[in-house]
Amino acid sequence: MPNKHKLKNRPKNLNLLTIRLPINALVSILHRATGCVLFLVLPLILITLQLSLSSAEHYQTIVNLMHSPLIKLVLIGLAWAFFHHFFAGLRHLAMDVHWMTTLMKARYTSKIVLILGIFATLIFAIALWF
Amino acid sequence: MLLELLSRKYPGFRAWLAQRFTGLIVAIYSVVLVVRLMCVQPNSFETWQSVFQPWWMRVVSILFWLSLSMHAWLGIRDVLKDYVPNTEVRGVAIKVVIILLWACLVWAVWLFTASFY
Questions:
Q1: How many domains does one find in chain A?
Q2: Which of A16, A75, B55, B83 registers the highest number of CB atoms within 10 A of its CB?
Q3: Is residue A107 part of a domain?
Protein backbone atom coordinates (compact mmCIF):
# COMPACT_ATOMS: atom_id res chain seq x y z
CA MET A 1 0.00 0.00 0.00
CA PRO A 2 1.68 3.26 -1.10
CA ASN A 3 1.89 6.07 1.37
CA LYS A 4 -0.69 8.69 0.30
CA HIS A 5 1.23 11.54 1.81
CA LYS A 6 4.32 10.55 -0.10
CA LEU A 7 2.40 10.26 -3.37
CA LYS A 8 1.08 13.80 -2.92
CA ASN A 9 4.55 15.19 -2.37
CA ARG A 10 6.05 13.77 -5.52
CA PRO A 11 7.80 16.48 -7.53
CA LYS A 12 5.79 17.94 -10.35
CA ASN A 13 7.17 19.92 -13.23
CA LEU A 14 4.45 21.64 -15.18
CA ASN A 15 6.62 24.42 -16.54
CA LEU A 16 6.97 23.30 -20.14
CA LEU A 17 9.66 25.91 -20.81
CA THR A 18 12.10 24.18 -18.48
CA ILE A 19 11.82 20.86 -20.31
CA ARG A 20 14.52 20.37 -22.90
CA LEU A 21 13.05 18.11 -25.52
CA PRO A 22 15.43 15.54 -27.06
CA ILE A 23 15.29 15.58 -30.87
CA ASN A 24 13.47 12.23 -31.01
CA ALA A 25 10.79 13.57 -28.67
CA LEU A 26 10.53 16.72 -30.77
CA VAL A 27 9.93 14.72 -33.96
CA SER A 28 7.44 12.53 -32.10
CA ILE A 29 5.36 15.36 -30.62
CA LEU A 30 5.41 17.21 -33.95
CA HIS A 31 4.15 14.02 -35.63
CA ARG A 32 1.23 14.08 -33.21
CA ALA A 33 0.55 17.81 -33.51
CA THR A 34 0.72 17.79 -37.32
CA GLY A 35 -1.59 14.76 -37.37
CA CYS A 36 -4.18 16.69 -35.36
CA VAL A 37 -3.85 19.72 -37.64
CA LEU A 38 -4.27 17.57 -40.75
CA PHE A 39 -7.36 15.95 -39.22
CA LEU A 40 -8.88 19.38 -38.59
CA VAL A 41 -8.37 20.57 -42.19
CA LEU A 42 -10.03 17.51 -43.78
CA PRO A 43 -13.36 19.36 -44.31
CA LEU A 44 -11.46 22.30 -45.83
CA ILE A 45 -9.72 19.97 -48.27
CA LEU A 46 -13.06 18.47 -49.30
CA ILE A 47 -14.82 21.80 -49.80
CA THR A 48 -11.88 23.12 -51.85
CA LEU A 49 -11.82 19.97 -53.96
CA GLN A 50 -15.56 20.07 -54.54
CA LEU A 51 -15.69 23.76 -55.48
CA SER A 52 -12.66 23.55 -57.77
CA LEU A 53 -14.07 20.52 -59.62
CA SER A 54 -17.72 21.58 -59.83
CA SER A 55 -17.61 24.59 -62.16
CA ALA A 56 -15.21 26.85 -64.03
CA GLU A 57 -16.33 29.92 -62.02
CA HIS A 58 -15.72 28.24 -58.68
CA TYR A 59 -12.40 26.93 -59.97
CA GLN A 60 -11.41 30.50 -60.81
CA THR A 61 -12.50 31.68 -57.35
CA ILE A 62 -10.22 29.08 -55.73
CA VAL A 63 -7.32 30.00 -58.03
CA ASN A 64 -7.80 33.69 -57.18
CA LEU A 65 -7.89 32.86 -53.48
CA MET A 66 -4.57 31.07 -53.84
CA HIS A 67 -3.00 34.27 -55.15
CA SER A 68 -3.48 35.92 -51.77
CA PRO A 69 -0.22 35.97 -49.75
CA LEU A 70 -2.03 35.09 -46.51
CA ILE A 71 -3.59 31.97 -48.04
CA LYS A 72 -0.19 31.07 -49.48
CA LEU A 73 1.37 31.28 -46.01
CA VAL A 74 -1.38 29.08 -44.57
CA LEU A 75 -0.88 26.57 -47.40
CA ILE A 76 2.88 26.50 -46.79
CA GLY A 77 2.24 25.86 -43.09
CA LEU A 78 -0.16 23.03 -43.94
CA ALA A 79 2.32 21.65 -46.47
CA TRP A 80 4.97 21.51 -43.75
CA ALA A 81 2.49 19.72 -41.46
CA PHE A 82 1.85 17.18 -44.20
CA PHE A 83 5.51 16.65 -45.11
CA HIS A 84 6.61 16.32 -41.50
CA HIS A 85 3.82 13.83 -40.76
CA PHE A 86 4.72 11.92 -43.95
CA PHE A 87 8.45 11.60 -43.24
CA ALA A 88 8.04 11.00 -39.49
CA GLY A 89 5.48 8.32 -40.35
CA LEU A 90 7.92 6.60 -42.71
CA ARG A 91 10.49 6.73 -39.89
CA HIS A 92 8.00 5.01 -37.58
CA LEU A 93 7.36 2.31 -40.19
CA ALA A 94 11.11 1.78 -40.56
CA MET A 95 11.49 1.41 -36.81
CA ASP A 96 8.57 -1.04 -36.71
CA VAL A 97 10.58 -3.36 -38.94
CA HIS A 98 13.64 -2.76 -36.71
CA TRP A 99 15.58 -0.36 -38.88
CA MET A 100 17.48 2.47 -37.20
CA THR A 101 16.41 1.58 -33.66
CA THR A 102 19.54 2.35 -31.61
CA LEU A 103 19.64 5.73 -29.88
CA MET A 104 22.30 7.27 -32.11
CA LYS A 105 20.65 6.00 -35.30
CA ALA A 106 17.25 7.24 -34.07
CA ARG A 107 18.72 10.69 -33.43
CA TYR A 108 20.24 10.66 -36.90
CA THR A 109 16.94 9.71 -38.60
CA SER A 110 15.12 12.36 -36.50
CA LYS A 111 17.44 14.99 -37.96
CA ILE A 112 16.86 13.61 -41.46
CA VAL A 113 13.07 13.77 -40.93
CA LEU A 114 13.22 17.40 -39.76
CA ILE A 115 15.48 18.38 -42.67
CA LEU A 116 13.42 16.53 -45.30
CA GLY A 117 10.22 18.11 -44.00
CA ILE A 118 11.67 21.61 -44.25
CA PHE A 119 13.31 20.87 -47.61
CA ALA A 120 10.07 19.56 -49.15
CA THR A 121 8.20 22.57 -47.75
CA LEU A 122 10.77 24.90 -49.34
CA ILE A 123 10.27 23.27 -52.74
CA PHE A 124 6.50 23.55 -52.29
CA ALA A 125 6.81 27.20 -51.24
CA ILE A 126 8.96 28.05 -54.27
CA ALA A 127 6.56 26.25 -56.62
CA LEU A 128 3.61 28.05 -55.03
CA TRP A 129 5.11 31.52 -55.01
CA PHE A 130 6.68 31.64 -58.48
CA MET B 1 1.09 -17.01 -33.29
CA LEU B 2 1.07 -14.31 -35.93
CA LEU B 3 -2.40 -15.30 -37.13
CA GLU B 4 -3.61 -15.53 -33.56
CA LEU B 5 -2.45 -11.94 -33.02
CA LEU B 6 -4.86 -10.88 -35.75
CA SER B 7 -7.85 -12.42 -33.96
CA ARG B 8 -10.39 -10.49 -31.91
CA LYS B 9 -8.57 -11.47 -28.75
CA TYR B 10 -5.96 -8.78 -29.38
CA PRO B 11 -7.76 -5.54 -30.34
CA GLY B 12 -4.68 -3.48 -29.44
CA PHE B 13 -2.56 -5.32 -31.96
CA ARG B 14 -5.26 -4.98 -34.61
CA ALA B 15 -5.41 -1.23 -34.01
CA TRP B 16 -1.62 -0.96 -34.09
CA LEU B 17 -1.40 -2.89 -37.36
CA ALA B 18 -4.34 -1.02 -38.92
CA GLN B 19 -2.67 2.29 -38.04
CA ARG B 20 0.52 1.25 -39.89
CA PHE B 21 -1.26 -0.33 -42.85
CA THR B 22 -3.62 2.60 -43.47
CA GLY B 23 -0.72 5.01 -42.98
CA LEU B 24 1.21 3.20 -45.70
CA ILE B 25 -1.76 3.40 -48.10
CA VAL B 26 -2.20 7.13 -47.41
CA ALA B 27 1.54 7.66 -48.02
CA ILE B 28 1.47 5.70 -51.29
CA TYR B 29 -1.60 7.63 -52.52
CA SER B 30 0.14 10.91 -51.69
CA VAL B 31 3.08 9.94 -53.88
CA VAL B 32 0.73 8.77 -56.67
CA LEU B 33 -1.14 12.09 -56.53
CA VAL B 34 2.05 14.17 -56.65
CA VAL B 35 3.33 12.13 -59.63
CA ARG B 36 -0.04 12.49 -61.39
CA LEU B 37 -0.07 16.25 -60.80
CA MET B 38 3.45 16.46 -62.24
CA CYS B 39 2.39 14.41 -65.30
CA VAL B 40 -0.84 16.27 -66.05
CA GLN B 41 0.42 19.71 -64.89
CA PRO B 42 -3.09 21.15 -64.56
CA ASN B 43 -3.24 24.84 -65.50
CA SER B 44 -6.94 25.21 -66.37
CA PHE B 45 -10.33 24.04 -65.14
CA GLU B 46 -10.51 21.26 -67.77
CA THR B 47 -7.03 19.86 -67.04
CA TRP B 48 -7.69 20.07 -63.29
CA GLN B 49 -10.89 18.05 -63.77
CA SER B 50 -9.01 15.51 -65.88
CA VAL B 51 -6.70 14.78 -62.92
CA PHE B 52 -9.58 13.13 -61.00
CA GLN B 53 -11.70 12.04 -63.96
CA PRO B 54 -10.39 8.52 -64.82
CA TRP B 55 -12.24 5.65 -63.15
CA TRP B 56 -9.03 4.27 -61.58
CA MET B 57 -8.25 7.65 -60.04
CA ARG B 58 -11.75 7.70 -58.51
CA VAL B 59 -11.30 4.18 -57.15
CA VAL B 60 -7.90 4.83 -55.55
CA SER B 61 -9.15 8.17 -54.20
CA ILE B 62 -12.02 6.40 -52.42
CA LEU B 63 -9.65 3.73 -51.11
CA PHE B 64 -7.38 6.53 -49.95
CA TRP B 65 -10.17 8.30 -48.08
CA LEU B 66 -11.27 5.03 -46.43
CA SER B 67 -7.71 4.49 -45.17
CA LEU B 68 -7.39 8.12 -44.17
CA SER B 69 -10.59 7.94 -42.09
CA MET B 70 -9.37 4.84 -40.27
CA HIS B 71 -5.89 6.32 -39.77
CA ALA B 72 -7.24 9.63 -38.45
CA TRP B 73 -9.69 7.83 -36.16
CA LEU B 74 -6.97 5.66 -34.56
CA GLY B 75 -4.61 8.62 -34.21
CA ILE B 76 -7.12 11.08 -32.74
CA ARG B 77 -8.48 8.37 -30.43
CA ASP B 78 -4.96 7.86 -29.02
CA VAL B 79 -4.49 11.60 -28.59
CA LEU B 80 -7.83 11.91 -26.74
CA LYS B 81 -6.98 8.92 -24.55
CA ASP B 82 -3.68 10.57 -23.60
CA TYR B 83 -4.82 14.13 -22.97
CA VAL B 84 -8.49 13.92 -21.88
CA PRO B 85 -8.54 12.03 -18.56
CA ASN B 86 -12.22 12.75 -17.83
CA THR B 87 -14.03 9.75 -19.34
CA GLU B 88 -17.31 11.59 -19.88
CA VAL B 89 -15.72 14.50 -21.71
CA ARG B 90 -13.61 12.06 -23.69
CA GLY B 91 -16.68 10.01 -24.61
CA VAL B 92 -18.34 13.10 -26.06
CA ALA B 93 -15.15 14.15 -27.88
CA ILE B 94 -14.77 10.68 -29.38
CA LYS B 95 -18.39 10.76 -30.60
CA VAL B 96 -17.82 14.16 -32.22
CA VAL B 97 -14.72 12.83 -33.99
CA ILE B 98 -16.60 9.75 -35.21
CA ILE B 99 -19.45 11.86 -36.60
CA LEU B 100 -17.01 14.24 -38.28
CA LEU B 101 -14.99 11.45 -39.88
CA TRP B 102 -18.11 9.62 -41.10
CA ALA B 103 -19.48 12.84 -42.56
CA CYS B 104 -16.17 13.46 -44.35
CA LEU B 105 -16.07 9.89 -45.63
CA VAL B 106 -19.60 10.02 -47.04
CA TRP B 107 -18.84 13.41 -48.57
CA ALA B 108 -15.59 12.14 -50.11
CA VAL B 109 -17.22 9.03 -51.59
CA TRP B 110 -19.99 11.20 -53.02
CA LEU B 111 -17.41 13.63 -54.42
CA PHE B 112 -15.22 10.97 -56.04
CA THR B 113 -18.24 9.28 -57.66
CA ALA B 114 -19.86 12.58 -58.76
CA SER B 115 -20.67 13.02 -62.42
CA PHE B 116 -19.99 16.76 -62.70
CA TYR B 117 -16.42 16.03 -63.81
A1: 1
A2: A75
A3: yes
Q: Looking at the domain assignment, is residue A98 inside a domain?
A: yes
Which one-letter amino acid corresponds to residue B112? F
Cβ–Cβ gap A53/B100 under 8 Å = no
pTM: 0.90
Question: CB distance from B29 to chain A under 8 Å?
Answer: no
Tell me the residue range of the domain where A29 lies.
Answer: 24-38+68-129
B117 touches chain A (CB under 8 A): yes
Distance (Å, rounded) from C-alpha B45 to C-alpha A60?
Answer: 8
CA distance A110 to A112: 5
What are the residue ranges of helices labelled H in B1-117?
Answer: 2-5, 11-40, 45-52, 55-83, 87-113
Q: Do A60 and B45 touch (CB under 8 A)?
A: yes
Closest CA to B51 of B62, B35, B40, B65: B40
CA distance B91 to B78: 13
- Does residue A9 lie within any of the structural domains? no
Q: Is A3 helix (H, G, I), strand (E, B) or coil?
A: coil
A62 in a structural domain = no
**pLDDT tens digits for A68-117?**
999 999 999 999 999 999 999 999 999 999 998 999 999 999 999 999 99
Domains along the sequence of chain B with CATH? 2-113 (1.20.1300.10)
Q: How many CB atoms lie within 10 A of CB A51?
A: 15
